[in-house]
Specification:
The complex is a heterotetramer of chains A (about 170), B (about 725), C (about 100) and D (about 500). Chain A is an all-alpha fold and about 170 residues long. Chain A is built from 6 helices and no strands. In chain A, helix 1 packs antiparallel against helix 2. The N and C termini of chain A lie far apart (about 65 Å). Chain B has 29 helices and 2 strands. A two-stranded antiparallel sheet of chain B has the order 1-2. Chain B is elongated and about 130 Å long. Chain C is mostly helical. Chain C has a single domain, classed as Orthogonal Bundle (Helix Hairpins). Chain C has 3 helices and no strands. In chain C, helix 1 packs antiparallel against helix 2 (about 30-55). The termini of chain C are far apart. The relative contact order of chain C is 0.13. Chain D has a domain at about 280-510. Chain D is built from 21 helices and 2 strands. In chain D, helix 3 packs parallel to helix 5 (about 120-135), helix 5 (about 120-135) runs antiparallel to helix 7 (about 150-160) and helix 10 packs antiparallel against helix 12. The radius of gyration of chain D is 22 Å and the shape is globular. Classes of the chains: A mainly alpha (about 170), B mainly alpha (about 725), C mainly alpha (about 100), D mainly alpha (about 500). Chains in contact: A-B, A-C, B-C, B-D. At the A-C interface, helix 1, helix 2, helix 3, helix 4 and helix 5 of A face helix 1, helix 2 and helix 3 of C.
């Protein structure tokens, strides 16, 4: 269907553009805003791909919580812009060349191996629903799920310890 | 008809028997938990604490009497099981009480004499704890005494060898605790503790024999129960005589330990370090007779093994004479009695060895009376002397007379006594009764029991008869010597001069015991119709409890010899002669009149034939040396320091050094060094790669990704 | 429905952009954001393949990745704050204490 | 997933790993929070003791085989499988209880004795408990080996950090010595796994069929590890060093539990796995045991350091245990197992007692004491009870063990029995005399006689904490002495089965 293609390309353009915006913006705040746009676009892709729960999580966690945290830190430090010059000037052209090679390679991979990918078929209505994901999380992936919770706790404690001031000790 | 009558012919209290143990245990628990507070709070505290302990022993006696009454109607007795103890496979040891005439006899003696001694101790310990400067220990004494009664009751009432052994060890423990009661006193402050240890260890050697006997009993008979064993014994005697011989000889080792026979008697004289009531109860009247009880109890095994009987008789009679001779050379009032005890125990052991079980048990009973009496009276004498000494020390006028030797005054040395007859009248009279009973002068108790042993010996064991008669002669002699030195003549020290008689609580038990010592023989006169004790024991010992005969020749001879010996004693130690002897200046005076006549022999007697020294030289010192040698040289210097630290560790060090210097440094190291240098140089270059910039590292990862992906594509 | 290949291609492009961001930018925070972008592109492929294979597992993995990313951001930003405190700068080119 | 958790959360797993909870909590404490660390360790170990009582409650004494089994696959390698296999039976239940009882007692004893790095101390102590409990419960040889070696590490640190002046020497010696023996055991375990195809003890026992000459080598390889741990004469050289240098609580655990791991190993592995070798080598093991009894007793007598005296007395006491085990009959083995417990109680209590006086006087030289009974009457009375228990007085626990052991070995000495001579039991019984000699010497030197040193005049008697530390041990000392039946009942079926298996194996093995 044409509308699919239109939406896809439209969103793809937004995603890539915002990505490039991130890459090029001098100001960290702009970079962050670009990234939010990017995340939102990707979230819509998730919706299309029958992953409503993930999409919402993407908006809430990434575009919401994480990016707010970024912005918060940027403003807290007042480090939107960087002065000085780069010590690794030679790296930039090299990186661009390598990036292009990577894209070419990836595209080649999919051209060569596209036969291995199954054609898309319709899925049932509850595919990717929060219920389905929850069921999977609390049965097959129970242990990893618990481990993740410990990891988050550890990260939280780690963040607190790292940002504590020296003189607050003892 | 007749049977029914027998069953209903009297009250039955057999099921009360556990209380003979429980009462003393309750008493000691009471004193452990409340005694201390009572002593602190109440003026009459000592009377309460001692009273409770005496009451506990007394109730135990009451139960024993009830049991005896029951036995009158039901002479076959009863086994009263209480609890299981150890059960493994066929091994089944239980705590059960054997109530029969033999055990009840022992119960009566133990609790009866025990109660009297408890009462006596209330008065005695009152002074003793003050004299030794620790009144708080009053309670501990009665706790231990009650514990002893309980253990002794377990010993005599068990229905199997293991319960007997439990009591056997229990009384040993009490003996240890009570000998070492004043553990900070004695020679060099440690003498009493050493005496206690000696008693325990020597007894352990005896217990070793007992244990081996127990093992053999179990693996031969499959049980420890007396009745089951005795039933099977005749079969085993045919099938496996070696086992029975081994059992009986090993039990004899146990007997020599507990009943202070040769060669393990050495602990008993030292045991006099304990307070005098202890010496009376444990080391004269009851505990030391446990060995005699053991042989009597095992009568049905012993009669099957003549060899063992021979050895028991030999040990007993030799000990009787041996100890009696040593008693002649002692100056300590309690030591004399101690050796006398050993000697009298020898009589009993010899008797039960000969198969004269009734005579042995009879002597056990009478001996319990008169020897307890003698010890308690000696305690009265000692405290009388201490009171005198105290009096002198606190009277400035008299104190001057004491001069230098005030501190090392020994209230037990008979040479410090003399003339106490006047100052301690009751003590004198009861002591005299005890001494005459011991010397075997008719019609006192000692005469009848001793005579029965001699009469039995004269029939088959003439050599034993000879030894025992000689021992009896010495007995009369040393008792005469003691009486004369203690009570007659003039006081030889100010302390003796001011000695005071003991209070009623001390003298009352003495008088009761004196009566018993006087009339105790009545329970088993050797005339037809008077053999009550023999008939009593017949219910337990059966055919082996033959009533004693009265052999006029034997009786006349022993009495005559005793009188001769008494006269000899009088001749040597009569007051006039002894005062003359005492008047000789100390430097030239021999320590005893007897020395002038038998010189070196007397030295040997006085030094107890140097047996202690011999044991030290032959067993103890070598063992100490051996253990030091093992510990220092073998275990530490050789095995620990040399072998492990030097040989193994040093050897390993040497090996590593060899490897390190020769092989490693010479060969491998050179190569390795070269390699190291190379590595270092390469590293010098390579480290420049480590720029420390995150982006650099990221770049290299990225390059890697691109390359790997490219490889996958081109593959 | 757009075939999965397109999603993967898009994902590859986003990934490369992110990688370039990491490689070329000096601002630590932007570097961080680029890392997030890379993670996101990977998530996109996960979800796309989950759709294609009709397996929920891919989505669950995305969930886990998000959780890890959240943890990583928390610690990472804390590190940046700590570094800023000591160096008063978040230029990662000035942080090379590990230089060999 | 759920079923796995259900399988794991069984009493045995809980009792083994519960101390880790305490470890986790202690990890979050600061070094300065000494009392918190102590309380956490104490409560954790008390809960572990409670859990072991739960194990006891589930235990069926009339069933001879392993109970409350947890048997889960763990590491599969090719055709072999190493399994997470825990179980308890009559041979191990008492030792499990002993371990979980002694740990809180030891922790309580360190209350004031350890002031330095309390947090780390408690950490290692709880880890040690995990290892010890695991050793007594593991039924897979590999799992057993892991727990066995694991106990070394915390003990190494306990000696090496909180020990006396020569602690590093002692710690290293302890570690190397025990390690050396274990290596041989590991080889034997591997042999069994490769040629018998299993690491699970019950499977191996059921399979059997190892040729007699090989059995001897395997027996010796296992025995090397166990005999060093026991320690049997002449492999005891590490013991005095380790005991003297270890802190009090370390000594208590070392004597109370770690040594038992050796004797337990003989009962659990050597006898049932290599029955023919056990029968063949029994006289040799008994010879070493008897030498150990007499040698340990003689060497104890010459010691001046009271802790060393107690250490050497362990050599003597464990000689009795070994003699009982190699009597290979019910009385001997049951007595041996009970004597393991007894030794844990009596010697554990003796080490506590030594620790208490050391804390007050900072010396262990017996000549520095004398007359302490007068100064510290409660201390004296309690010590007397423990000492009497150690020398085997009837009515206290030591006698029940020693007597049954000697009775058993005397029976084994009958013609046709495994030992074949009465000399073993006869000579061992001399050890009973010698025990009295050295114990009484110790008591006399420390407690009797007058107070000669001024430092001793004003010593404080035991406080409530110290009395409570000793109280459970004393209660058990009396309990086992007066009424040992419940203890024998627990182990009887398992031991009878073991002994019966030994006898059939002997009959089958002898042509």
């Amino acid at each position: 269907m044409l509308i699919d293609w239109i939406i896809f390309f439209g969103l793809a353009v937004v995603a890539i553009a915002s990505g490039i915006g991130l890459l090029l913006s001098k100001n960290a705040i702009y970079a962050a805003l670009n990234l939010i746009a990017n995340f939102t676009a990707v979230a819509i892709f998730y919706l299309i791909l029958a992953a409503p729960f993930i999409a919402l999580a993407q908006i809430a966690v990434y575009a919401g919580a994480i990016m707010v945290l970024f912005l918060f830190v940027i403003m807290l430090l007042g480090a939107e812009r960087l002065g000085g010059t780069s010590t690794l000037r030679w790296q930039r052209p090299l990186a661009i060349v390598l990036g292009l090679i990577l894209i070419v390679e990836t595209v080649l991979v999919f051209i060569n191996r596209s036969g291995a990918i199954a054609p898309i078929v319709e899925v049932t209505a509850d595919f990717g629903s929060p219920a389905a994901i929850g069921e999977s999380l609390f049965s097959t992936y129970l242990l990893p799920f618990e481990v993740i919770s410990v990891l988050l706790l550890a990260a939280m404690i780690g963040a607190i310890v790292l940002t504590r001031r020296r003189d607050q000790k003892a | 008809m007749f049977f029914e009558e027998a069953v209903s012919s009297g009250p039955q209290f057999f099921n009360l028997v556990p209380w003979i143990v429980f009462f003393p245990v309750i008493g000691l628990l009471f004193n452990i938990f409340f005694g201390g507070r009572i002593l602190e709070r109440s003026r009459a505290g000592e009377k309460i604490v001692g009273g409770v302990a005496s009451l506990a022993a007394g109730l135990s006696f009451l139960v024993s009497v009830l049991l005896a009454i029951s036995l009158n109607g039901h002479p076959e007795g009863m086994v009263v099981p209480l609890a299981d103890w150890i059960n493994i496979g066929e091994l089944n040891i239980r705590w059960a009480f054997q109530v029969d005439t033999l055990s009840v006899t022992m119960m009566l003696v133990v609790s009866g004499v025990g109660t009297l001694i408890h009462i006596y101790a209330i008065g005695y310990m009152h002074e003793d704890v003050r004299h030794n400067g620790d009144p708080g220990r009053f309670r501990r004494f009665f706790v231990f005494m009650n514990l002893f009664i309980a253990a002794m009751m377990i010993l005599v009432s068990g229905d199997n060898y293991m319960m007997l052994f439990v009591g056997w060890e229990g009384v040993g423990l009490c003996s240890y605790l009570l000998i070492g009661f004043w553990y900070e006193k004695g020679k060099d402050g440690i003498g009493n503790a050493l005496a206690a240890k000696k008693a325990m260890v020597t007894n352990r050697i005896g217990d070793f024999g007992f244990l081996l006997a127990a093992f053999t009993i179990f693996w031969t008979f499959g049980t420890f129960k007396f009745h089951a064993i005795f039933e099977k014994a005749p079969e085993v005697a045919v099938a496996n005589p070696g086992a029975l011989l081994f059992i009986t000889i090993c039990l004899l080792i146990g007997v020599t330990g507990k009943s202070a026979q040769l060669p393990l008697y050495v602990w008993l004289p030292d045991a006099m370090a304990g307070p005098t009531p202890v010496s009376a109860l444990i080391h004269a009247a009851t505990m030391v007779t446990a060995g005699v009880y053991l042989v009597a109890r095992s009568a049905e095994i012993y009669v099957l093994v003549p060899t063992a009987q021979f050895w028991v008789t030999l040990v007993g009679s030799v000990t009787a004479l041996f100890a009696a001779t040593i008693a002649v050379g002692q100056f300590d009032i309690k030591k004399v009695l101690a050796y006398s005890t050993i000697s009298q125990l020898g009589f009993m052991v010899a008797a039960v060895g000969m198969g004269a079980f009734v005579a042995g048990m009879f002597h056990l009973v009478t001996h319990a009376f008169f020897k307890a009496l003698l010890f308690l009276s000696s305690g009265s004498v000692i405290q009388g002397l201490e009171r005198g000494h105290h009096h002198v020390e606190h009277d400035p006028k008299l104190k001057k007379q004491l001069k230098g030797h005030a501190h090392d005054f020994d209230p037990q040395d008979m040479r410090n006594m003399g003339g106490l007859r006047e100052r301690m009248k009751i003590t004198y009279w009861v002591y005299l009764i005890g001494a005459i009973a011991l010397a075997g002068i008719p019609p006192l108790a000692g005469f009848w029991s001793k005579d029965e042993i001699l009469a039995d010996a004269s029939k088959e064991f003439s050599w034993a008869y000879t030894l025992l008669t000689l021992a009896a002669i010495f007995t009369a002699f040393y008792m005469t010597r003691q009486i004369l030195m203690v009570f007659f003549g003039k006081a030889r020290t100010p302390a003796a001069e001011h000695a005071e008689e003991s209070p009623l609580v001390v003298t009352a038990p003495l008088m009761i015991l004196a009566v018993l010592s006087f009339f105790g023989g009545l329970i088993n006169l050797p005339f037809d119709g008077f053999h009550q004790f023999a008939h009593w024991l017949e219910h337990t010992l059966g055919e082996y409890a033959h009533p004693g005969e009265f052999i006029l020749v034997v009786a006349l001879l022993s009495t005559g010899l005793a009188l001769v010996s008494l006269a000899l004693g009088w001749w040597l130690y009569n007051p006039r002669r002894y005062e003359e002897f005492w008047a000789i200046p100390a430097a030239r005076r021999p320590d005893d009149p007897l020395r002038s006549y038998i010189g070196p022999i007397y030295e040997a007697l006085k030094n107890k034939y140097w047996v202690d020294e011999l044991y030290w030289a032959v067993f103890l010192n070598p063992y100490i040396d051996l253990s030091r040698f093992l510990a220092d040289v073998i275990d530490w210097r050789f095995w620990h320091d040399w072998f492990h630290d030097r040989v193994i560790m040093g050897g390993y060090n040497l090996l590593t050094r060899l490897l390190a210097i020769r092989i490693d440094l010479g060969g491998i190291d050179a190569a390795a060094n070269g390699l190291a240098v190379l590595t270092q140089r390469v590293a010098e270059r390579l480290r420049q790669v480590q720029t420390g910039y995150v982006r650099n590292y990221a770049l290299s990862i990225f390059v890697g990704v691109v390359i790997i992906l490219g490889y996958l594509l081109l593959r | 429905m757009v075939p999965i290949q397109y999603y993967t291609a898009l994902s590859a492009i986003l990934f490369t952009i992110g990688a370039l961001g990491v490689l070329t930018r000096r601002n630590a925070i932007i570097v961080f954001m680029s890392v997030e972008l890379m993670l996101n592109s990977a998530n996109l492929v996960f979800v796309a393949f989950a759709r294609s294979f009709q397996s929920i597992n891919g989505q669950v993995f995305v969930f886990f990745v998000m959780a890890v990313a959240a943890a990583e951001v928390a610690v990472g930003l804390a590190l940046i704050v700590a570094i800023f405190r000591s160096k008063h700068n978040i230029n990662i080119d000035q942080i090379n204490n590990l230089r060999g | 997933m759920n079923s796995l958790l259900n399988n794991l959360l069984q009493p045995l797993t809980l009792v083994t790993f519960f101390p880790l909870v305490g470890v986790l909590i202690i990890l979050f404490l600061k070094q300065e929070q000494k009392n918190a660390a102590r309380w956490v360790a104490l409560i954790t170990s008390l809960i572990t003791f409670g859990l072991s009582l739960v194990v006891l409650a589930y235990f069926n004494p009339s069933y001879p085989d392993l109970q409350e089994v947890i048997n889960l696959p763990w590491i599969p390698i090719a055709q072999w499988e190493i399994r997470y296999y825990l179980g308890v039976d009559g041979l191990s239940i008492l030792l499990l209880l002993l371990t979980t009882l002694l740990t809180p007692i030891s922790i309580l004893s360190t209350w004031t004795a350890v002031e330095d790095r309390v947090k780390d101390f408690m950490l290692f102590f709880l880890l040690l408990e995990v290892g010890m409990v695991g050793v007594f419960l593991a039924q897979d040889l590999f799992l057993f080996y892991i727990f066995w070696e694991f106990t070394l590490v915390p003990m190494y640190f306990l000696i090496g950090i909180w020990g006396g002046p020569r602690r590093m020497y002692a710690a290293v010696k302890f570690f190397l010595y025990t390690m050396a023996g274990s290596i041989l055991m590991l080889l034997a375990i591997l042999w069994l796994g490769i040629y018998q195809g299993s690491f699970q003890v019950p499977d191996l026992i059921a399979k059997g069929g190892i040729p007699a000459n090989l059995q001897i080598w395997l027996f010796l390889a296992f025995a090397a590890a166990f005999a060093i741990k026991v320690p049997m004469w002449p492999l005891h050289s590490w013991l005095p060093d380790a005991h003297v240098e270890a802190p009090t609580a370390g000594s208590v655990i070392l004597a109370g539990v770690l040594l038992k791991m050796g004797t337990y190993g003989f009962v659990r592995f050597n006898l049932p796995l290599f029955p023919q070798a056990a029968v063949q080598l029994a006289p040799w093991m008994a010879v070493l045991a008897v030498i150990g009894i007499l040698y340990g007793a003689a060497v104890s007598y010459a010691q001046k350091d009271v802790k060393k005296l107690v250490a050497y007395s362990s050599v003597s006491h464990l000689g009795f245990v070994m003699l009982g085990i190699f009597a290979l009959n019910s009385q001997g083995v049951q007595g041996g197992i009970l004597q393991m417990v007894n030794h844990g109680l009596s010697t554990g209590a003796l080490f506590l007692i030594v620790g208490m006086i050391y804390e007050r006087r900072h010396t262990r030289d017996m000549d520095a004491f004398g007359g302490l009974w007068k100064v510290m009457p409660i201390y004296g009375a309690l010590t007397l009870i423990v000492a009497l228990s150690s020398m085997g007085l009837p009515g206290l626990n030591g006698f029940v063990g020693e007597f049954t052991i000697l009775l058993g070995s005397w029976g084994a000495g009958q013609p046709g029995g495994p030992l074949g001579s009465h000399w073993y039991a006869g000579l061992a019984a001399i050890g009973v005399i010698l025990a009295a000699v050295y114990i009484l010497l110790m008591f006399q030197k420390m407690f009797l006689g007058p107070v000669t040193k001024d430092e001793n005049r004003n010593l404080k008697d035991l406080n409530w904490r110290e009395i409570i530390t000793l109280l459970p041990l004393l209660i058990l000392i009396f309990w086992i002495g007066l009424y040992p039946k419940p203890f024998f009942v627990l182990m009887a079926p398992a031991v009878d089965k073991l002994v019966a298996a030994l006898q059939t194996a002997v009959v089958a093995g002898v042509p």
